[in-house]
Design a protein that fits this description.
The chain has 245 residues and is mostly helical. It contains 11 helices and no strands.
Length: 245
């Protein structure tokens, strides 16, 4: 199936939009958008990030150390996806509350909720991405990254509380679309790659001299461009905030 076919199909659009919601929510963590009053030097926001990714790592380690196929079958149930998405939403709301009224309990609840959501949902989105190996992974991952800034930018113009509340709803949106496209996937090893034409051309040049396809190179450039855009937007916002202080 061609690259454009995955992007243009109705299911592919749901995958890309759902991935965009997930990456936009992760962007809001890096931008400290959930913390209205992060304190001096963003200590509270940074501590929240540590909690989130620590909980996410625990979920990933549990996945690796347990029976992989059995666990994959269990977490693909729609009830589990709904609970994971709800935990991400409630964890985000706990972070908002912790930013307004610092509390170790709220921070712990936020870290557990957001980390559990991130760990489980990323595994499930990964199953969707790799459904057809590299052929589906490249358009889905890059499409999600490209979609995320279009979700981030309108929210950044909102007042802080409204922006934080809208960001906290993104786990639910991502989980809803994930449940709509997820089938009973079986983890498997990828055993295919993009077709490389035998005739001379730019695709063959990239494959011979760089060891990658032109489609994959474009995907990497698109992902890094989106990351750079988000980093610059965050840096300019911090400069403006420090300048007005």
């Amino acid at each position: 199936m061609a690259f454009s076919t995955y992007v243009k199909s109705p299911e592919g659009r749901r995958v890309i939009l759902g991935s965009g919601f997930l990456w936009a929510w992760i962007d809001c963590l890096f931008m400290s958008a959930l913390f209205l009053n992060p304190g001096p030097h963003n200590v509270i926001a940074e501590f929240g990030m540590i909690l989130t990714f620590s909980a996410c790592s625990l979920v990933a380690m549990a996945f690796v150390l347990s029976n992989r196929r059995s666990l994959v079958a269990r977490i693909q149930r729609k009830r589990v996806i709904v609970l994971a998405s709800l935990s991400g939403c409630l964890g985000s709301l706990a972070y908002i509350a912790a930013g307004m009224q610092p509390s170790p309990v709220l921070m712990a609840l936020g870290g557990i909720g957001t980390g559990s959501f991130m760990g489980m949902v990323q595994i499930l989105w990964g199953l969707v991405y790799c459904r057809d190996g590299a052929r589906s992974a490249a358009p889905y991952v890059t499409g999600g990254f490209a979609c995320a800034p279009f979700i981030d930018i309108p929210l950044l113009f909102m007042v802080p509380l409204a922006r934080a509340l809208f960001f906290s709803l993104l786990p639910l949106a991502s989980g809803f679309l994930l449940a709509s496209v997820l089938k009973q996937e079986e983890p498997k090893e990828a055993n295919e790659d993009f077709d490389i034409p035998s005739s001379p051309g730019i695709r063959r040049f990239f494959h011979q001299h760089l060891g990658i396809s032109s489609v994959l190179l474009f995907a990497v450039v698109l992902v890094m461009t989106c990351f750079g855009h988000d980093a610059c937007a965050f840096r300019h916002r911090e400069i403006r905030r420090l300048g007005s202080a």
